[in-house]
Design goal:
Layout: H1 3-9, H2 12-21, H3 43-48
């Protein structure tokens, strides 16, 4: 039986009766520890919204961001959390 089938089956009167007879019960729930990661390349999105020259070696001007004599560009943009 799907959730949709159950929703059609249970009427308001039945829900009130279930609520009236329901009891509060404390439960201990054990869940496994897990880690989820993903990688998103933000460069296309940033280029789309106007940050185009920072990724082009011949056009980027990152003066003041990086202390180097060589011209600098971004090669990738990846958020982390």
């Amino acid at each position: 039986m799907s959730i949709a089938d159950l929703a059609h089956f249970i009427k308001a009167k039945q829900l009130r009766r279930l609520k009236k007879h329901a009891k509060l019960k404390m439960l201990d729930i054990v869940m496994p520890k897990f880690k989820m990661t993903t990688t998103i390349d933000l460069m296309p999105l940033m280029k789309h919204y106007g940050m185009k020259t920072a990724f082009e070696a011949d056009e980027a001007d990152l003066t003041g961001i990086r202390y180097s004599q060589k011209p600098s560009t971004f090669s990738s943009v990846e958020p982390t959390s």
